# Entry
Amino acid sequence: MLNIVIFGAPGSGKGTQSELIIKEFGLDHISTGDVLRAEIKNGTELGKTAAGYIEKGQLVPDELIIDMLAGVLDSKEASKGVIFDGFPRTIPQAKALKAMLNERGTDVTVMLNLQVDDEELVNRLLERGKVSGRSDDNLETIQSRLEVYHNQTAPLAEYYIQEGKHEAIKGVGTIEEIFNRIKKVVASK
Ligand code: AP5
Ligand code: MG
# Structure
């Protein structure tokens, strides 16, 4: 199986590049952000809890996310591989992912770390906020998402370096240029 963790700050292009990777490599896509937004739309208990965190730009607690991820992963049993978008975001989530994949006889193949500076991230997200309808695409929440990313999520790069799975990808340029960088790395795995 080809299991890819696509990693990077808010607005770094995880969702955009995931769509291209899925088409090229025939993978399933799990975006924890998309799953949470669907839960909110459907008015579930999980959605009601998650909404408060998302609006503030905070992380939803690990236990809730890990349980949710396990459920979605079970629904992808027959897949050629999965691209994990926006998960893991903490060390406990990374350890839980490894355990879940190991139980299923597989592991993370590679972690792609999209690198984009904060100024570009804010510009992209403010631009998207004009049309996205996302409750977290406003300047105040964008700033707290970036702070949470730098403090709580970016340190995970070190975990994947230790695992020998980390690949830095320059995340600026055209969408196609970035995808070409990703393809080269994935094809070598
Ligand atoms: P999530 O949905 O994962 O959002 P995020 O990490 O903030 O990232 P985005 O989806 O905003 O950006 P992206 O990297 O996908 O970029 P995109 O391709 O859209 O999480 C939302 C919230 O849910 C979290 O804050 C948290 O509360 C909660 N959550 C989710 N997962 C969790 C977890 N595991 N644990 C705890 N809580 C969790 O691109 C952005 C924009 O830029 C788009 O408009 C795009 O068109 C544009 N763009 C893309 N590429 C380029 C390019 N090369 N040049 C110019 N523009 C570009
Ligand atoms: Mg996204």
In short: The first helix runs from residue 14 to 25. Residues 14-15, 31, 33, 86 surround magnesium ion (ligand 2) (CB under 6 Å). The beta strands are 4-8, 28-31, 82-85, 110-115, 166-170.
